Amino acid sequence: MVSLSDFQRIGVGLVGFGLFFLLFGILLYFDSVLLAFGNLLFLSGLVFIIGFRRTFTFFFQRPKLKGTSFFFGGLVVVLMRWPILGMLLEAYGFISLFKSFFPVVFGFLGSLANIPLLSQLLQKMGDSGSMV
C-alpha cells in the first residue's frame, strides 16, 4: 500500500470533496456556486497532494499552456456565473492537459478484467445484455 503523509491525506479528502461538489453542481442544473466551490477544492487538494511547485510546473509547461488557459478561463467564467460555458471550457482544458495520461488510465482499466472476481462480474454483465 502507498504511504501518504498527513498533507497528502488532506489533499485526497479535498479532491474527493471537490469532485463531489462538481458532480452535485452538475446534477443541480449547473449551479455556479457549487461548481466554483468544487473547482477550488479540487485545485487546493491537488496542491496538497503533489505540492505547490509541482502543481505550478505541471500547469505552466509550455506545451500545456493552451489547456491551462482554457481550464483556468473556464474557472473564471464559472465564477462569473456562466456555468455551462465555463464547464465546457474547463472540460476542453482538462482533456488537453491530461491527454497524455489517458492511455495509462485505459490500460489500468483494461487490466481490471484480469482480476478473478471482477472478470466473472464483467462476463455476467456481458451475457445479460442480449436483446433477444
3D architecture notes:
With 132 residues, the chain is an all-alpha fold. The protein has one domain (6-101). It contains 7 helices and no strands. It has helices at 6-27, 32-50, 52-59, 65-79, 83-98, 102-111, 116-127. The longest helix is centred in the N-terminal third of the chain and has 22 residues, at 6-27. It is globular. The mean pLDDT is 88.
* Mean pLDDT figure: 88
In this structure, how is the largest beta sheet organized?
none
Cα-based radius of gyration, to the nearest Å: 18 Å
Q: Please provide the ordered H/E string of secondary-structure elements.
A: HHHHHHH
Q: Give the overall shape.
A: globular
- Number of E-state strands: 0
Strand content range:
under 5%
Instruction: Compute the number of structural domains.
Output: 1
Oligomer: single chain
Structural descriptors:
0% strand, mainly alpha, globular
What secondary-structure arrangement, pairings included, does this model have?
Elements: H1 6-27, H2 32-50, H3 52-59, H4 65-79, H5 83-98, H6 102-111, H7 116-127
Provide a brief overview of the structure.
With 132 residues, this protein is mainly alpha-helical. Helix content is 77%, strand content 0%.
